[in-house]
Amino acid sequence: MSGDVRLDRALALYEQAVFGGDASALAAADRELDAVEADLTTRGSGREIGAAEAGLALARGRIVHARFLEHHEEDPRELELFERAADLFRRLGDTRGEGEALFWIGCFHQVVRHDDEAAGPALRRSYELAARAGDRLTMSYALRHLGIAEHKAGRLEAARERLEESVRLRRELDFHPGVAANLVGLAYIAVAEDRRDDALRLLDEAAALAETSGALGIARHVEQARTSL
Predict the structure, then answer these.
(1) CA distance 94 to 12
(2) How far apart are CA 141 and CA 148, in angstroms?
(3) Sequence-ordered strand ranges (E) for the chain
(4) Labelling 39: which of 138, 149, 171, 176 has CA 20 to 30 A away?
């Protein structure tokens, strides 16, 4: 969001770790972010610096979250980083950035602390702000995790609707690893609704998308889902 290509590279490395299953990418992401932070310490203040600090906090939080997915050990810095990012973006009047940071706050509560009640307000507000800013990617993430919460609560129709809308947005963006991840979620919902054939069809498409996009991490989730069926 600051226009720094190193933040873009750190995001690509995050996706390489989470979707591609390459945990070694996280160390490279750390180096990119360390370079951004080093530059910030030598510069003054102002809106541009505030935006860079917000983007850095958000990026650092994502990398911490990726390490949680790898090791399943909570790092207290994660929530602090996302809350700092949300606060900075809010002060800057950056609706898009605030919406993205709020998504990650909700994701932290849901994924790390398994607290859907705490996650809900942040995820819903994230969706609202992302929709206002036209940020379809963050909208798709918020919908995915709201759908996960609905599924866990046994509200299958609502869960399916949210995940299907997330899939629609991700197809528009050609975000194939994200589509594949959502199709796995829809397959679990199909099983819960006694639609086994639909579940297998969804997993077949998810497997194909994961393979063509190099999303080895998602491919493993597909196989785990097949085994559970």
Answers:
(1) 22
(2) 11
(3) none
(4) 138
